[in-house]
Specification:
With 294 residues, this protein is an alpha/beta fold. It is built from 13 helices and eight strands.
């Protein structure tokens, strides 16, 4: 390290990361006045929805806030990353939405992080889109379950939740509509590539429809740029375009492409516990701090 050229890219990156860590050191995050329910959505797959959900949830929980992750993606990747069982025999969010189970009966603690709990998804969710069609108040079932769970925690003497994150499937079906109806905020991860911008207008149109007809409180509060590769002009151009169109929503924090972030789920962990010193973990800590302080 002593012999490293101070002008080299690696040296500059180390200096930058050290300064960023110093800014976060000892920083306590404020508790929101009421529970913030954030749906993490983007109908394009592979943009970092689940990764963003679990890592921001883990960062906030690590700061002492009470956090629930609701996994409504049939793939169950958020449940995997949080180390929560989600095989076919487990009571899951499917049972809450379709069979009227209480949310309190399906939530499970994340083994690695205190204050973080998860309502897991199982493969049964794959058929939930069809089963929801015939049910009464099909768009509001998740919202009612969350309201009932808040009342349950209050009666049980438990602290109220500070954040609820709903991880959506990469589609705009009834599961995602339930997530939009249950939330008051939408967090959109956007991959820093050209195709990521194409689907954004469709997503915003759908959110606008939800606002008009089902949930007037819903707002797109947060946009996070993910998979950023600073070596390419395209990533910089996409980031600049998104910031120009959504100056108030886009976080300053940017999540880079990172092997550590990709590896963590295979160990049933978030990057926060898998490699807390990595650049990816630092980026998600910064993003979580920005969200908490807004």
């Amino acid at each position: 390290m002593d012999n490293m050229d101070e002008g080299s890219p690696i040296a500059r990156q180390l200096v930058s990361e050290t300064k960023r860590r110093e800014r976060l050191l000892g920083r306590s995050l404020p508790k929101p006045r009421k529970t913030r329910i954030m749906t993490v959505a983007n109908q394009k797959g592979g943009v970092g929805k689940t990764t963003t959900t679990v890592n921001i949830a883990a960062a906030l929980a690590s700061a002492g806030l009470k956090v629930l992750v609701v996994d409504i993606d049939p793939q169950g990747n958020a449940s995997t990353a949080l180390g929560v069982e989600h095989h076919a025999d487990v009571d899951s969010i499917y049972d809450v939405l379709i069979n009227d189970f209480a949310l309190a009966d399906v939530v499970a603690p994340c083994p690695d992080i205190v204050n973080l709990i998860c309502a897991p998804a199982t493969i049964h969710l794959a058929g939930a889109e069809i089963e929801l069609v015939s049910l009464v108040a099909r768009e509001q079932r998740l919202r009612r379950a969350l309201d009932a769970y808040a009342q349950h925690r209050e009666k049980s003497g438990e602290e109220r939740l500070d954040y609820i994150f709903v991880d959506c499937p990469p589609s705009l079906g009834l599961l995602t509509v339930n997530a939009f109806c249950a939330a008051n905020e939408v967090l959109i991860p956007i991959q820093c590539e050209y195709y990521a911008l194409e689907g954004l207008s469709q997503l915003l149109n759908n959110i606008e429809m939800i606002q008009k007809h089902l949930n007037g409180e819903l707002e797109v509060s947060t946009i996070l740029l993910t998979m950023y590769d600073g070596r390419t002009n395209l990533a910089a151009q996409v980031a600049a375009d998104v910031r120009e169109h959504f100056p108030d929503q886009v976080l300053k924090a940017v999540v880079p492409r990172s092997v550590r972030i990709s590896e963590a789920p295979s160990y049933q962990q978030t990057v926060m516990t898998y490699d807390p010193s990595s650049t990816g973990a630092l980026s998600y800590l910064e993003a979580a701090a920005e969200i908490a302080e807004r």
